[in-house]
Write a structure and sequence with these properties.
The chain is an alpha/beta fold. It has a seven-stranded mixed beta sheet, sandwiched between helices. The protein has a six-stranded mixed beta sheet with strand order 5-4-3-6-7-17, with helices on both faces. It has a three-stranded antiparallel beta sheet with strand order 1-2-18, with no helix packed on it. The longest helix has 21 residues. It is globular and about 80 Å long. The termini are far apart.
Length: 405
């Protein structure tokens, strides 16, 4: 992949509008999963278990589950494939990939590179389809008895549909579903670090990542300083434009529906009393101005549903208990962030947050070496890390009996 890094990155930018710098970063991230799981393939260890009987030996073997259906989203059209497929191939599974209808070209490019790398025909398969055909193709991938496992990244609503379809044949399932990440800034936080983390966490890919911060909770004592510095950072660092322009940091949203959703959340918040400090307008095409809101309350749409766009709403809070109550008032729990220099508080909050991933004084979390996945309705299973390959393996117990002493 690294030999074709520039070409693959341009393909992502032309498919999704993502700024080229971010696309280059995605290709590096994508390749890291291929490298990581190629190494993990050598560490699929079974167990020899001490037996309670002298004439028996107990062995636990790990074997590939079989054919895996891989259904991926548009926001990371390369990395979401390699994070799943790297683990599947390392475990010994074959894969059938259905890329998002908005971004199929990156998947096809990876299939071509897989063939060039010597992966046998029939092991790495891609089935692109139109938006109209997506439900029918998804049904086949989730119901065909030849498929042993499904792995899906996307919305919670779609994940529930796929799980229902997979239930009839009791398939193994990995689900990385929606998030609604809280970003909590306590009075003791380093304000500059918190602003830097907020910028990185919120505006990467124009706010279109599942671990993007959605709900910003800032304690009263630090609120005004944080807002002033955040506003300055947005002015200094954010530039809306074409993804190939080196000055661009904010590309378009993926389609018109995505832009309309962000515009609706902004309109709803302002109508309920939020103050618009920056941005707020829908621009030509699928572009949205990076937007900063204050005086936000928990009854607003942006506090109830995932945004997936460049909207940063800020809620003022007074106590740690209040912040945790707001943060955990969601049916999903993928990522959460907290900024504090109080070590005891950090441990309390990190353990209390009902999420699968916690960033402490850090806004960028993802790496091949660590687990990726959520709790509650944010999904099932984990990707990445030493645990990611386990999602594509079954454990077989072999009892070897009647052995003579």
């Amino acid at each position: 992949m690294t030999l074709h890094k520039e070409d693959l990155a341009k393909l992502i930018t032309f498919e999704s509008g993502k700024p080229l710098k971010e696309s280059l970063g995605e290709i590096t991230y994508s390749a890291s999963f291929v490298e990581w799981f190629s190494e993990e393939a050598r560490r699929v260890y079974g167990d020899i278990v001490p037996s309670p009987a002298k004439d028996r030996k107990i062995f636990l073997l790990k074997q590939p589950v079989g054919v895996a259906s891989i259904i991926t989203p548009w926001n990371f059209p390369s990395a979401m494939i390699t994070r799943k497929v790297g683990a599947a191939l390392a475990a010994g599974c074959t894969v059938v990939i259905k890329p998002a209808e908005d971004t199929p070209l990156s998947a096809l490019a990876l299939a071509e590179l897989a063939e060039q790398a010597g992966i046998p025909a029939g092991v790495f398969n891609v089935v692109p389809c139109s938006r109209e055909k997506t439900p029918a193709v998804g049904e086949v991938l989730c119901t065909d008895p030849l498929v042993a496992k499904i792995s899906f990244t996307g919305s919670t609503a779609t994940g529930k549909i796929l799980l229902k379809m997979a239930a009839d044949t009791v398939k193994k399932a990995s689900m990385e579903l929606g998030g609604h990440a809280p970003f909590i800034v306590f009075d003791s936080a380093d304000v500059d670090a918190a602003v830097s983390g907020a910028m990185a966490s919120k505006f990467r890919n124009s706010g279109q990542t599942c671990v993007c911060s959605n709900r910003f909770l800032v304690q009263s004592g630090i609120h005004d300083r944080f807002m002033e510095k955040l506003s300055q950072a947005m002015d200094a660092e954010l530039r809306v434009g074409h993804g190939l322009d080196p000055e661009t940091t904010q590309g378009p949203l993926i389609n018109s529906r995505a832009a309309e959703k962000v515009a609706q959340q902004i309109s709803d918040a302002v109508s309920r009393g939020a103050t618009l400090l920056k941005g707020g307008k829908r621009l030509d095409g699928f572009f949205m101005e990076p937007t900063l809101l204050t005086d936000v309350t928990t009854d607003m749409l942006c506090m109830k549903e995932e945004t997936f766009g460049p909207l940063l709403p800020v809620v003022r809070f007074n106590t740690e208990e209040e912040a945790l109550a707001i943060a955990n008032a969601s049916h999903v729990g993928l990522a959460g962030y907290c900024y504090s220099q109080d070590v005891s508080q950090i441990w309390r909050v990190a353990e209390a947050l009902e999420v699968g991933i916690v960033g402490v004084n850090e806004g960028l979390l993802s790496t091949a070496e660590a687990t990726f996945g959520g709790v509650k309705q944010s999904g099932l299973g984990r990707e990445g890390s030493k645990y990611g390959i386990e999602e594509y393996l079954e454990v077989k117990y072999m009892c070897f009996g009647n052995l003579k002493p």
